[in-house]
Amino acid sequence: MRVPHRFLALATLAALGACHKPAPALPAASTPIAVAAGPQQAAGLWAQKVSDRRGVSVTRYCLDASAGSALASFDRNLGNHCSRHDMAQAADGSWHFSTSCDMGAAGKVATEGVMRGDFQTHYTVEAHSQTVAATDAAANGPGRVMADVSRVGDCPSDMKPGDVVLPDGSRSRLETLASHA
Q1: 3-state secondary structure (DSSP) of residue 175
Q2: How far is residue 79 from each of residues 14, 82, 159, measured CA to CA in Å?
Q3: Tens of pLDDT along 30-73?
């Protein structure tokens, strides 16, 4: 995906937000199994390292049970742009997702990906996308994003659940970012 790191961080959070709803079946290399809801991250401070062709960016965010629901709002807001947003757990425990979204001037983006890990201490996300019809022609084409997400520990005293430190060092809240998804 040829978009700013800030968007990549939000998109990776949005993928996790999709985990907080019932999972429909979708095609994957392994056979999906039925589940009531997706994985839930443990409470605490999480660091999300996102890598793409331009380099690496790190986003940190603090979660508790109520902040986890803000992740789900990413999914709801992203859904306003997406004709497809599917997620299912495969027999091997991984989570496969697929989206097809019209992001206006940013183009039409189709993404396929997989999340693997325990969601209590560590997980990874690998996503492949294809962007077409973006106003900025450089944004069009294939993309690959990798995210390595780890629980760092308890939330520090200068962060409360729902706080986010973006790659550029600016601070926000999950619900604020969700409203811009």
Answers
A1: helix
A2: 10, 5, 29
A3: 333 333 355 778 899 999 999 988 899 999 999 987 776 666 55
Taking the CB of residue 164, how many other CB atoms lie within 10 A of it?
Answer: 24
In this structure, what token pair is assigned to residue 65?
């049970």
- Structure tokens given for 1: 């995906």
In angstroms, rounded to a whole number, what is the distance separating the alpha carbons of residues 80 and 77? 5
Task: Tell me what percent of the residues of the chain surpass a pLDDT of 90.
Answer: 49
Alpha carbons 132 and 82: distance in angstroms, whole number: 14
Could you identify the residue written with the tokens 């079946």? 25
CB 32 within 8 A of CB 88: yes
Dist CA 152 CA 2 (whole Å): 28
Measure the CA–CA gap between 84 and 86, rounded to whole angstroms. 6
**Paired residues of 173 in beta bridges:** 163
For tokens 């996503």, what's the residue? 127
